[in-house]
Specification:
Blueprint (H helix, E strand, L loop, with lengths): L1 E3 L2 E2 L2 H14 L7 H12 L4 E9 L16 E8 L3 H8 L1 E5 L19 H13 L3 E5 L5 E4 L3 E6 L2 E5 L9 H12 L3 E5 L11 E6 L3 E8 L2 E2 L4 H13 L1
Parallel strand pairs: 5-6, 5-12, 9-10
Antiparallel strand pairs: 1-2, 1-3, 3-4, 6-7, 8-9, 8-11, 11-12, 12-13
């Protein structure tokens, strides 16, 4: 979670997502007020930083049923802000098309869980290929997201973002961008789309709460030199925070 001037930005959105996942996964009840206080204490006095919250079912016996996990565990930590994101926001990044694909998992789609082995493998692929971010498809050949970010693209007067009902993380910044597009009167379509959809796009960008809104300047031989809408969205985001 992004910290600016001593406060966790979009805290209520983060809290709602934590509570939703907690209920979906059948965890025991947490003290949400205490969690908010702990996050606020870490954020206090920080000009710009990252607060991370991890919730687990708790310690118990062996097996999958969670028996004995009666006391949920929470881990709240503070880390420096990744300064290179400022450069990404201004100059954009080159993205690779990942060779590895995400499997469909509708039972967990949309949730941000600790089970991120697919992303670990994708990050290893990026490192091996000398990339910083990648475009990820599912096993059916449809666009899903970036390795650590959500994906948007614009063609004409319409913006598109992948349907995440089968795979992917429904990020906080994704929702903020969707709200901003609605406020701006720009049509948004949530779609199942093949990779070729990006070859027809005029702008492509990636989002998460830490990197904000990052232009993708190229994917392979395709170039996107005019981030007109991206700059408008970035300006609105600055005003919002």
């Amino acid at each position: 979670m992004l910290v600016r001037e001593g406060k966790v930005l979009w805290w209520q959105d983060h809290l709602a997502r934590l509570q939703h996942a907690n209920a979906r996964l059948g965890f025991g009840e947490h003290s949400w007020d205490l969690l908010a206080d702990e996050a606020a204490q870490l954020a206090s006095g920080q000009t710009q930083a990252v607060v991370k919250i991890m919730l687990t079912r708790g310690a118990g016996g062996r097996g999958y049923d969670g028996a004995g996990c009666d006391t949920p565990t929470r881990i709240v930590s503070l880390a420096p802000y990744p300064e290179h994101y400022h450069d990404w926001q201004q100059t954009g990044i080159n993205a690779l098309v990942c060779q590895q694909q995400l499997g469909d998992s509708p039972m967990l789609a949309g949730l941000k869980t600790l089970g991120r082995l697919e992303q670990v493998m994708l990050k290893r692929e990026l490192a091996a290929r000398g990339g910083v971010e990648g475009i990820v498809l599912n096993s059916r050949g449809f666009l899903v997201e970036g390795v650590s970010a959500n994906l948007f693209w614009r063609r004409g007067r319409t913006v598109f973002t992948p349907d995440l009902t089968r795979a992917g993380i429904d990020g906080i910044m994704r929702k903020r961008v969707m709200t901003m597009l609605k406020q701006m009167g720009i049509e948004l379509r949530v779609v199942e789309a093949p990779l070729e959809s990006l070859w027809q796009a005029e702008e492509v960008w990636l989002t998460n709460t830490l990197m904000g809104i990052v232009p993708v300047t190229s994917i392979g031989d395709m170039h996107y030199p005019s981030p007109v809408l991206i700059r408008r969205l970035q300006e609105r985001l600055v005003i919002e925070v």
